[in-house]
Structure formats: C-alpha cells, structure tokens
C-alpha cells in the first residue's frame, strides 16, 4: 500500500516533467502547483498510514512470546491486526502451526502419552485494500474419524472490513477476545508444553463464537473490541460426565456447530498498549445461555434454567522489558439460575457451578540468545476452581465447593528460531485427580508456526 | 339487532356444516383403528385376549396380575416366555443399532428383535402363546368380521381384505399410530415431571432417593436408567436403550424353564436369531424405562421378582450375599448366575457399581436407602394428583 502510493507520487512527478513545452507558463505553473498539492496529500496519507501501523505493531510485539531476539515477526496474519498489516504482495496468503506433545505422569507412567496435538492451516485473502476473509482449519490428535479420538474443526472463519485505518468490523466465527492465550494460542506464543490451565479450564481456549464484532485502536494506544455473538447452551450440560468439571464453559460452548441461537451474548475488551512491551486490560463476556430449551420439546417440558445468564470477566497485565517477560491474569465466571437445574441433577457427579475462577502469575527470562536462537526458562503458578460455589439447595442436599487446584510449572522454551520452539517442563499439582488427568508430570513438546 | 343477526347467521352456518363436521369427527384414521384393534378381544383365537389384556391401559399398559408370564392361545392356557413390558413411552424408543463402541442399543421388545413400533405388534398377534392368529390369513379373517371392518377398508383401501399380508401390516401400522399419537401412552404427568417443571418439590425422602439413584457410588441406577433431560428438553425416560446382563436368577414359574437345557438369552436367542453367533451378547436384555415401575407386578425379563423392594435388594446384594438369591448346586455351593449356561456366565455384568462387590462387603444401599429409592421411584408413576399426593396411571386413560 505504502509502496503503491509512493509509486503514484513518483509517476505524478514524472508526468509533470513530461508536460508539453509549448504550454504557456501560467498554465504550467498552475499545473505544477496542483501536482505539488497532490504530492503533499499523498505524503500525508503515507505518514498517516505509517502512524497507524505503529500501534498494532506495538500490540503484536506485546503479545508475542518471547520478545523475539531475532525480531522476526510471525508470518501468520493476526486477527488482531488491522488491514494495513496484511501482507501486500499477494492477495492470498497461507499460514499454519503445529504442536506435538509428550506427557509422562510421574506416578502413572502407564498413562504417558505422545500426541500430535494440533495441526493447523490458515489462510488470509484480501478482496481489496479494506476487505479480507480469514480462516483457521485445525486437526487435533492426528486422525479425525467416527472411530478415532481426533477432531477436525473450523476455528475461525470471518470476513473483515476496515471502515478506517483505525477500526473495522468482522462477521463470522471469531475467537473471543478474552485473556492472553485465546487469540494467540500458537505454541510459539506461550511458555510450557501445554497451554496454561486457567485459560483452558476457566476461559475455554480456544473459545469461539459466531456473530458481528467491531475492533479498533486509538492513537493513545488503546485496543478495543465489541461484539454481539452466539451464546453457550446450558442445555448441553451433562451432569454424568466430568467435562463440566474440567471446564464449565468448555462443555457448553457451541463453536457455531448448528448453534442454538435464541439467546445471544456480548463481548467487550479494552487493552492499553501505549507503552511498548506493556499490555494491561480486561474483557467481559455476558449473555443468556438457556436457549429457550423449554420450547424445543413438544410436551410440557419446562427447562429449569431458561433464564440462566453467564458472566465471565478477565483482567491481565503483561510486561515485557529486555529479557524479562512477566504476566498476571485473573478470570472469574458465574452462571445464574442453576438451583432448579441442579435439583434435577441431584446426586450426579457434575452439577452446574454458580461460580468458577482462576488466576496465574508467570515470569520468564531470556537467559541466552545467539543468532536466531534463544533459551527462555520460565516459572508459572496457577490456581483455579471450576466449581467454586453452587446455588443453594434444600437443607441436606447442598453441593460442596470443589477444592481449588494449584499447579506450579517450571520449564524452558528453546527457540531454534523465533518460529520453531522445543519445550520441556515439569508440573507439580497440589492434589492429583486422575479422572481429569491431573497429576505431577514431565512434558516435552515441539511447536512451530509459519 | 346486529348481534341477533350475527347469531342467526352463525346458527345457519352451523346447521349447514353439521353433516360435514359430523363426518369429519367420525372419519376413521389409522390411529383410531389402532385404538379399536388394541382393545378387541375378537382378534384372538380364544376370543378373550386383546393387546389391552396384557397391556392394561389402567395399569400403565402393563399386566395387572402377578404371573411371571401370561397365558394365551385358544384356551388361555398356553404360557409365554417373558414378562410383559409396559408400552408407555415406547413412542420415544429408537431402532436397534450398535453404537460406535460396540454397545447394542435400541430396538423394540426385550431383545430388540423388532425394528420399530410397527414390527413390535407382529409376534403378539400371531404367536401360539398369545393371540394365536397363526398367520396373516387367520388374522385378516377375524378382522374382516369386526364392526370396524368398513372403516378399515375406508382407510386402507376397499380391496384390502383381498391381501391378508397387507391387512396384517396395516393393523400393525394402525397400532403403531395409536401408540404414537395417543397421549395415554406418554402423558409425562408423574410427580417427578411436575418436579422437573418446578410445579412442586419432592419430599426429603424422595429427594434422598433421587440422589441415591443417581450417585455413581451408591445405586448408580442412572448410568443405564438415564434421569436427565435430553438436550432438546425432552424429559428423561429412565432408559438409555442399551442392554445389560444382570444375572437374574432362573425363574421356576416359567414352564419352559422346566427343561434344564432351555435358556432365554435375550440378544443371542432363542427368539432373536440374527445375533446367535455373538455369544458375548448372550444374556443381555434391554434396559426398560422405569416410568411406572412402582405399578409393575413382576420385574426383569423373566418376572423373577414380584415386588420392587426385592428387585432393588437383588441389585445391591447379588454379589455381597449371593446365597440369598441363587440355589445351591449338588455340592452345596451357591450356583450364581444360574439362568445362563456356565460357559457364558462370564457375560454377566460384574464390573459396574453396584455389582462390583464381594461376599461379605456392605451392599451399596442399606435397607433405609432402598426405602428412599423406592419412595423416589414411586414419583415416576403417571397420573399424579397434587391434591391427594397419589398417582394412578388409570387417570390418563380415556373412559
């Protein structure tokens, strides 16, 4: 874009040199003035576009992990970027990432697993300078078929239209802009073999919904998002399964798979990226999740949680300075009107929680770097509870809160290049829960993106 | 004045339309014919047995006597082989299939041999120990003599009686339509339904029983008798339509069991024949709905138990006190799982709670807890009256 405008300016200047010699001076002078004005306008546009690029670039830097020693930004288009960031050479670009893990519980070696956790292909196609389509296609666990454990899924698919260099609108299946990991879940972007528990159990990364959303940045460094999207479906809650205990929202989000869309939600996020290396902000996701289930069965059914509401809030701060990278994040969710639903689940292993929460603090240090490589040890402490409280039931039938899980993770990310990472870590759980695969373990991993 | 004119106009219109309305009301349908057939004893060789004889509408469409197996045939003296299942909520049943993990699921009758609600009626209409029509011709001949034979022709064709096989299939279809469309068969008006609809609260004992019913470490009943709504809001039917081998004791009240070589093994035969080679499935019978279970006179596929308390005690004491349920063999040892050939006794479910215990251990439910579960199961009886706090499935039946 920038190059195109410059070329236009040069062409205009060249054209002015080629003006016929017989033109009278006054006319020629006027023509030159007009061209000068045009060049000045084009220069201003170029400067404006350059300024616009700086803020998102700062955001990208703030969210990239580590603060790349070789400073080669990932080639993959980032949904958080404005149109001005997109590659300008070709209208269509491909990107992708992969993650391979090996987990070995120390007390249950027989449960050791090696897994091609994710293979992802993405694309970005620019229809013109303001409109593009962006998609992410994923395979989990190597093989996806009716008889295998893998999944094949569309993680993102939306059309984005920039209404100005500073803001625009997206329509389609989008990642919920909450937390630090949900939108930036590529393995080179986070420390440790596995994604942190808080942003899996409480914020069900990758959490996506379908709808319409606006996005933008301001000159003062704010990044904002506002959307109206599909809601989770509380009717999906299975009290006989442990899924809801592992991740309450992960068990009821719909991922735009014939999503019940009677009830919608909103999301809102505000980050401040005004100081390079600093990301401080928060997000909320709120809406009804009963989906009018009562009306779907032709009988006298009355789903007892039609009016249930979900509210999830999140706040975070990340500071990257020199070789240091510190992060703290807290998130809390609540589901209302679950009393009667839980009464109908009496005695079942997984009732619906009234509240759930999690938080973590993490520090990483780029200890060594050479050529394009770097070695980054890190330490993370997490605490989370997927059943922190339950709606009150008749005396004698109260549901006790689940114990809070606490996990220390210590390890190292070795970046062969900024986009290829080998990982090793050890995770220490405060209590083991084999049903949820929680127990002390060693992890090895390989991740890459392009 | 205008009012009078309008009334007059309405009266004239009604008089003019009366014949048409009367015809419309009386127009027979497959479902209305199914209603007739269901209650018609003339369609049996004895002249005294209809579908409703064993599937008594007033008793939640199940038997109203204590016989383990019913008597049919020309003199109502020929014994059957299995206990009568209730027909209520069968409209929600699903065709037979093997789930991805190999679990047999769905199907009609106790061995899933009937593919749907239409096929379900086939055996009772023809079998020698039931209505004993022998074949389609015998059934069609009796149906042709009924007062609703003309209505049958009106619905299924003037020449339908020229094709006995078609008559039999049409009658089975009519019975299916009757069960599918008449709310008598699926009223969803038990105390538990009203509880789910938040119109009343269960008593503390009923709530305790419900929790014990669901708890995986106690009754674990809900692992097969699903107690949660489906995602579309459909109230629970208390079956997951799968099959299980519970090792129910042999029932000497079934005359066929006098032959020591005879075993009713459900999915693998002898009545169902397509899975005869699947010996791993021998002894498995379909998990029935527990709606109206408190109104049943006999329990399990062979009617080995005659009261609900005994049935529940068997569930939780089968493995902790087997001597209470099984006879002794010639050497004085308890002959556990005596209603399946010894080589197939390994098929009996001994891994899931509450069957995963050993002799001498405490049963999963105490006597008081069994009483609580029974109190809960009584809330599953149709026809609940909140004023008297009583339930009677007969309340749902049109006089």
What does this structure look like?
The complex is a heterodimer of chains A (450) and B (399). Chain A is an alpha+beta fold and 450 residues long. Chain A folds into two domains: 1-63; 162-449, Porin. Helix content of chain A is 15%, strand content 41%. Chain A is built from five helices and 17 strands. In chain A, strands 1-2-3-4-5-6-7-8-9-10-11-12-14-15-16-17 form a 16-stranded antiparallel barrel. In chain A, strand 1 (92-105) and strand 2 (113-126) form a beta hairpin. In chain A, helix 1 packs antiparallel against helix 2 (25-63). The radius of gyration of chain A is 26 Å and the shape is globular. The mean pLDDT of chain B is 93. In chain B, the strands form four sheets. Chain B has a two-stranded antiparallel ribbon with strand order 1-2. Chain B has a two-stranded antiparallel sheet with strand order 3-4. Chain B has twelve helices and eight strands. Chain B has helices at residues 2-26, 30-39, 51-54, 117-120, 122-126, 136-144, 149-156, 164-181, 191-196, 204-214, 308-317, 367-377, and strands at 71-72, 78-79, 97-98, 104-105, 243-244, 285-286, 384-385, 390-391. The longest helix of chain B is centred in the first third of the chain and has 25 residues, at 2-26. Chain B folds into two domains: 30-185, Orthogonal Bundle (Cytochrome Bc1 Complex, Chain D, domain 2), CATH 1.10.760; 191-396, Cytochrome Bc1 Complex, Chain D, domain 2 (Orthogonal Bundle), CATH 1.10.760.10. In chain B, helix 6 (136-144) packs across helix 8 (164-181). With 399 residues, chain B is mainly alpha-helical. The A-B interface holds A 146-147, 233, 235-236, 238-240, 293-297, 299-304, 340, 343-349, 394, 396-397 and B 100, 186, 188-189, 193, 195-198, 201, 204, 207-208, 210-216, 218, 222-223, 227-235.
Short description:
Chain A is of the alpha+beta class. Chain A is built from 5 helices and 17 strands.
Summarize the helices and strands and which ones pair or pack.
The complex is a heterodimer of chains A (450) and B (399).
Chain A: H1 2-17, H2 25-63, E1 92-105, E2 113-126, E3 131-140, E4 151-162, E5 167-175, H3 198-201, E6 208-217, E7 222-230, H4 243-246, E8 264-272, E9 278-288, E10 309-321, E11 324-335, H5 339-343, E12 355-365, E13 368-370, E14 373-389, E15 405-417, E16 420-429, E17 441-449
Antiparallel strand pairs in A: 1-2, 1-17, 2-3, 3-4, 4-5, 5-6, 6-7, 7-8, 8-9, 9-10, 10-11, 11-12, 12-14, 13-14, 14-15, 15-16, 16-17
Helix pairs in contact in A: 1-2
Chain B: H1 2-26, H2 30-39, H3 51-54, E1 71-72, E2 78-79, E3 97-98, E4 104-105, H4 117-120, H5 122-126, H6 136-144, H7 149-156, H8 164-181, H9 191-196, H10 204-214, E5 243-244, E6 285-286, H11 308-317, H12 367-377, E7 384-385, E8 390-391
Antiparallel strand pairs in B: 1-2, 3-4, 5-6, 7-8
Helix pairs in contact in B: 2-8, 6-8, 10-12, 11-12
């Amino acid at each position: 874009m920038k190059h195109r405008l410059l070329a236009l300016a040069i062409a205009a200047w060249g054209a002015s040199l080629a003006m016929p010699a017989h033109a009278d001076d006054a006319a020629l002078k006027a023509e030159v003035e007009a061209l000068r004005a045009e060049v000045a306008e084009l220069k201003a546009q170029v400067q404006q576009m350059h300024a616009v690029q700086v803020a998102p670039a700062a955001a990208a830097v703030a969210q990239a992990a580590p603060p790349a020693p070789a400073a080669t930004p990932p080639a993959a288009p980032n949904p958080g970027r404005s149109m001005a960031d997109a590659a300008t050479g070709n209208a269509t670009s491909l990107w992708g990432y992969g993650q391979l893990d090996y987990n070995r519980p120390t007390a249950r070696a027989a449960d050791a697993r090696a897994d091609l956790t994710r293979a992802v292909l993405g694309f970005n196609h620019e229809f013109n300078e303001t409109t593009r389509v962006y998609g992410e296609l994923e395979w989990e666990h190597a093989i996806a078929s009716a008889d295998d454990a893998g999944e094949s899924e569309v993680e993102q698919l939306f059309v984005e239209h920039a209404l100005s260099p500073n803001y625009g609108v997206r329509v389609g299946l989008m990642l919920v802009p909450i937390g630090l990991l949900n939108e930036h879940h590529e393995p080179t972007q986070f420390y440790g073999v596995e994604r942190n528990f808080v942003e899996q159990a409480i914020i069900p990364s990758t959490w996506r919904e379908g709808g319409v959303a606006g996005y933008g940045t301001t000159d003062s460094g704010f990044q904002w998002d506002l959307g109206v999207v599909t809601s989770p479906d509380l009717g999906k809650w299975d009290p006989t399964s442990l899924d809801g205990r592992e991740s309450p929202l992960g068990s009821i989000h719909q991922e735009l798979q014939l999503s019940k869309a009677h009830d919608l939600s909103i999301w809102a996020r505000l980050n401040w990226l005004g100081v390079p290396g600093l990301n401080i902000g928060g997000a909320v996701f709120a809406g009804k999740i009963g989906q009018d289930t009562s009306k779907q069965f032709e009988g006298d059914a009355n789903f007892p949680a039609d009016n249930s509401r979900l509210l999830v809030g999140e706040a975070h701060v990340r500071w990257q300075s020199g070789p240091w990278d510190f992060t703290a994040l807290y998130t809390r969710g609540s589901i209302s009107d679950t009393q009667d639903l839980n009464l109908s689940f009496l005695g079942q292993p997984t009732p619906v929680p009234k509240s759930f929460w999690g938080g973590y603090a993490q520090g990483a240090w780029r200890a060594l770097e050479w050529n394009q490589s770097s070695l980054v040890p890190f330490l993370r402490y997490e605490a989370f509870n997927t059943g922190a409280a339950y709606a009150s039931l008749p005396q004698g039938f109260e549901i006790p809160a689940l114990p809070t899980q606490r996990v220390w993770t210590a390890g190292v990310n070795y970046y062969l290049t900024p986009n290829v990472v080998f990982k090793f870590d050890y995770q220490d759980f405060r209590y083991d829960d084999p049903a949820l695969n929680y127990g002390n373990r060693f992890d090895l991993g390989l991740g890459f993106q392009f | 004045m205008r009012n009078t004119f309008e009334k007059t106009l309405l009266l004239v219109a009604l008089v003019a339309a009366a014949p048409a309305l009367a015809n419309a009301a009386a127009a027979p349908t497959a479902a209305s014919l199914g209603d007739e057939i269901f209650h018609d004893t003339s369609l049996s060789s004895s002249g005294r047995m209809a579908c409703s004889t064993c599937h008594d509408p007033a008793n939640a469409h199940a038997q109203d006597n204590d016989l383990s197996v019913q008597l049919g045939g020309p003199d109502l003296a020929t014994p059957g082989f299995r206990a009568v299942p209730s027909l209520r909520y069968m409209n929600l049943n699903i065709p037979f299939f093997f789930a991805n993990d190999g679990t047999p699921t769905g199907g009609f009758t106790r061995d899933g041999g009937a593919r749907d609600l239409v096929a379900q009626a086939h055996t009772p209409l023809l079998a020698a120990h039931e209505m004993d029509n022998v074949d389609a011709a015998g059934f069609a001949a009796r149906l042709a003599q009924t007062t609703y034979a003309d209505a049958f022709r009106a619905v299924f064709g003037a020449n339908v009686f020229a094709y006995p096989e078609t008559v039999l299939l049409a009658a089975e279809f009519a019975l299916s339509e009757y069960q599918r469309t008449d709310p008598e068969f699926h009223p969803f008006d038990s105390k538990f339904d009203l509880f789910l609809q938040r119109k009343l609260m269960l008593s503390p004992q009923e709530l305790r029983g419900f929790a014990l019913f669901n708890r995986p470490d106690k009754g674990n009943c809900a692992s097969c008798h699903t107690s949660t709504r489906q995602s579309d809001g459909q109230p629970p039917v208390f079956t997951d339509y799968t099959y299980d081998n519970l090792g129910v004791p042999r029932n000497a009240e079934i005359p066929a069991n006098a032959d020591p070589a005879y075993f009713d093994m459900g999915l693998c035969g002898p009545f169902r024949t397509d899975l005869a080679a699947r010996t791993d499935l021998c002894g498995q019978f379909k998990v029935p709905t527990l709606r109206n279970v408190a109104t049943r006179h006999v329990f399990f596929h062979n009617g080995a138990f005659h009261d609900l308390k005994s049935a529940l005690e068997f569930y939780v004491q089968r493995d902790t006190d087997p001597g209470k349920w099984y006879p002794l063999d010639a050497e004085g040892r308890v002959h556990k799982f005596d209603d399946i050939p010894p080589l197939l006794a390994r098929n009996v479910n001994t891994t899931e709670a509450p069957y995963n215990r050993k002799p001498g251990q405490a049963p999963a439910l105490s006597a008081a807890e069994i009483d609580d579960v029974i109190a809960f199961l009584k809330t599953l009886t149709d026809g609940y009256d909140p004023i008297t706090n009583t339930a009677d499935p007969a309340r749902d039946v049109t006089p």
